[in-house]
Amino acid sequence: MARARQTLERRQLGLALRRIREESGKTQQAAAEAIGRVRSRIVELEDGKGTLSREDLVGLLDFYGISGDERETVLALGAQARKRQRGRTYTDLLPGAFQRFADLEASATEISSYESGVLPGLLQSPGYVRAVIEECDGVWWDATTDAELEQRIAFRLERQERSLSPAESRSFRFVLTEDSLRAVVGSPEVMREQLQHLAAAIDTRDDLVVQVLEQDASRNPARGGGFTVFGFGDKGSPVGFSSTVFSPSTYHSNEADTTIMLRAFRGIQSLALDRDRSRRLVEQISKGG
Question: Are 105 and 161 contacting, i.e. CB atoms less than 8 angstroms apart?
Answer without folding.
Answer: no
